[in-house]
Amino acid sequence: MKLDQHTTAKYLKNLNIQRLNPMQEAVLSAAPNDNDIVLLSPTGSGKTLAFLLAILQQLEQEPARTQALVLTPSRELALQIDQVFRKLQTGFVISCCYGGHSIKIELKNLEQAPTIIVGTPGRIADHLRRMSFDPSTIHTLVLDEFDKSLELGFAKEMSFILEQLPNISKQLLTSATYSIDLPDFISLNAPKAINFLDEKTDEQLQTKAIVTKHEERIETLLKLANVCSHESTLIFCNQKAMVNQLSKRFKQQHIPHGTFHGDLEQNEREVSLMKLKNGSYNILITTDLAARGLDIDNIKNVIHYQLPHTEAEYIHRNGRTARMHKSGVVYLLLSEDKAWREYIDEMIDYEELPSTIPPTFIPQWQTLYVSAGKKDKINKIDLVGTFLKKGGLQKDELGLIFVKDNKSYVAVPKHKTKELIALLDRQKIKRKKVRIAIAR
Question: Into how many domains does the chain fold?
Fold first, then answer.
């Protein structure tokens, strides 16, 4: 498929993007001539759009068959890629495959060969064993965040998948780190390296260390959380159990927050991210699952409650803030009586918490659940009309709206949630009676 300026401009307009950035232009320039590309670029720099446009350059309209496969380390990243591609409105079909939901849905979607399949290694390997799709027609392979897939233990599945793809002519590997160690089963022929891993400037990213006694770490974190609570903040832990432990203490202190880790159901994780994006809370306590590959913009603060074991993960965590030329702050919570990680710069700036801790910032937004979505032919315009006309809201009282397949989420002023539920619960939207409730 030829990607001329007019077609590219149309796709960008569908994404509300004015122009490609230099990294994306470099990928598009290299894709027609270089069979193998290794793209190194920070999280949040637009790698997804870059490789999707590169894929589009390789696609043929006829005959209908699966032509490209994208492997990604997490469900969230697979869903993000799927959403970006659908917004492009190319006319090609994409199918998203990942664990944590019924495989029957995916088997149905694969009956008519999609042009592109995106998925996690475990689920894609499962489909190949079931012969759910024909791997022989695939000519383009993208290994997105491939180093993270290897780190998460998907080497066996990835090796199996690549063995089943006999006709790959184009490969594109992406990473947000310099630490690249290709396993033997990934074979590249004179790959083109595109490197945009420039260090963020001191003006963009400040790093501050707060030193405390080990037994006072949680109390120090609670104070720091209050200081940061008016801005979007990620608090990183190394274990899921620690995320839950901190969440319990935050609840006791009535600090609004969400949690995000691998033991949560897919829907719970999606709702956690939605609430952070729409301002229902500003603080998300998470594992490294949120360190990369997620579409989370405008994060102001990153707090390392527990420092990661590797410098690479440390860099990825920090990459959640100071994105797209915006400023951000990284806080390291260090124990004075414990050894620090070797990668911590001794010249780091030290910060003391203010003597008077400000009260917790209480967000003014709350998220409502609506029991209808795309498959009910309901869109954002329908929900806007319902909440403005039947709910009596003003335009500036309606926050972000997310429409999923069978449900939707609407951000509204917290002080009006009870009134809105009373007015709208069991009312009809496009002839469908819907339930309205506070999203959990």
Answer: 3
**If DSSP codes are grouped into helix, strand and coil, which group holds residue 296?**
coil
- The whole domain housing 116 covers 5-195
DSSP 382: H
pLDDT tens track of the chain, all 440 residues? 778 888 999 999 999 898 999 999 999 999 999 999 999 987 778 899 999 999 999 999 888 899 999 999 988 899 999 999 999 999 999 999 998 888 999 999 999 999 999 999 999 999 999 999 999 999 999 999 998 888 888 999 999 999 999 999 999 999 887 766 788 999 999 999 999 886 555 568 899 999 999 999 999 999 999 999 999 999 999 999 999 999 999 999 999 999 999 999 988 999 999 999 999 999 999 999 998 767 777 899 999 999 999 888 898 898 888 776 678 999 999 998 888 888 888 778 899 999 899 999 999 999 999 999 999 999 999 999 999 999 999 989 999 999 998 999 999 999 999 999 999 999 999 989 999 999 99
Among 195, 216, 236, where does a domain finish? 195
Query: Are 15 and 131 contained in the same domain?
Result: yes
Determine which helix (DSSP H) or strand (DSSP E) holds 273, and give its type and residue range. Answer: helix 266-278
- The H or E element spanning position 290 is none
Q: Are residues 226 and 298 in the same domain?
A: yes
> 438 to each of 30, 128, 330, 365, 407, how far by Cα in Å?
48, 40, 32, 11, 13
